[in-house]
Amino acid sequence: MLGVHFAITEQQERKLLQAAEKGDDAVGGLVGDLEEEWDDDAMKVDSDKAWDAVHRCLGDGTLDPDGGEYPLTHAVLGGRDLHEDYYVIYVTADEVRDVAAAVRGLDRAWLRERFDAIDDPDYRGAGDADDFEYTWDNFADIQAFYARAADAGRAVIFTAT
C-alpha cells in the first residue's frame, strides 16, 4: 500500500466529514477526486511504503492506531479512520498542530533507535540499513509536511490504498 498525506482546506474538510456520514462509497469517491485533482505539492507528501515503518517508530512498534502515545501516533494511523476497506485517516487542525510540535525535535538517532526496536513479525520491511534510510527520508518529509500543514491551520488526511 502506498501512503499519501494531504493537508486539506476547510471546504475539503467539510466535504470529507459530510461524506463520512454517508459511508465508505462517499468517502472513497471524495478521496479519489482529491487525489486526481490535487495541485498543491506543498500541502501533500507521498510516503510510498515507508508510512508503515514510520507509524511503527512513532507508536509501539505495531500498526495499532492506538499503540503508543498521542500525538506521535496521529502522524500516520492514529486519527479518525473514515473507511473500512483501506486507510483514510482524518486528523483535525488542532491535532495537526500537536503532531507538528511533537515530531519537530525528533532526529535521526531517535528514529534509528525506534526503528531498530521494531520486533513485529508482521513488519514486511527488510529492517536493514537501506530500509532505515528509506524510512528516515520519508519521515523527514512527513516532519516538514506537518510543519507546513500546522502553519496553514489545515486538517490532514492520510490515505493508503
Q: What do these coordinates show?
A:
This protein has six helices and five strands, in the order E-H-H-E-H-E-E-H-H-H-E. The protein is of the alpha+beta class and 161 residues long. It has a single domain (3-160), classed as YfbM-like super family (Hypothetical protein yfbM fold, 3-Layer(aba) Sandwich). The protein has a five-stranded antiparallel beta sheet, sandwiched between helices. Strand 3 (80-81) and strand 4 (87-91) form a beta hairpin. The longest helix is centred in the C-terminal third of the chain and has 24 residues, at 129-152. The mean pLDDT is 96.
Rounded average pLDDT: 96
Number of helices: 6
Low-confidence stretches: none
CATH superfamily caption = YfbM-like super family
What is the name of the CATH architecture?
A: 3-Layer(aba) Sandwich
Number of domains: 1
The largest sheet is: 5 strands, antiparallel
What is the topology, as strand order, of the major beta sheet? Answer: 2-1-5-4-3
Organism: Dactylosporangium maewongense
Protein name: DUF1877 family protein
Pfam families: DUF1877
Properties at a glance:
Hypothetical protein yfbM fold; 5 strands; five-stranded antiparallel β-sheet; 161 residues; 6 helices; alpha+beta; DUF1877 family protein; globular
Task: Draw up the topology in text.
Blueprint: E1 3-8, H1 10-22, H2 24-37, E2 44-48, H3 51-58, E3 80-81, E4 87-91, H4 93-104, H5 108-116, H6 129-152, E5 155-160
Antiparallel strand pairs: 1-2, 1-5, 3-4, 4-5
Helix pairs in contact: 1-2, 4-6
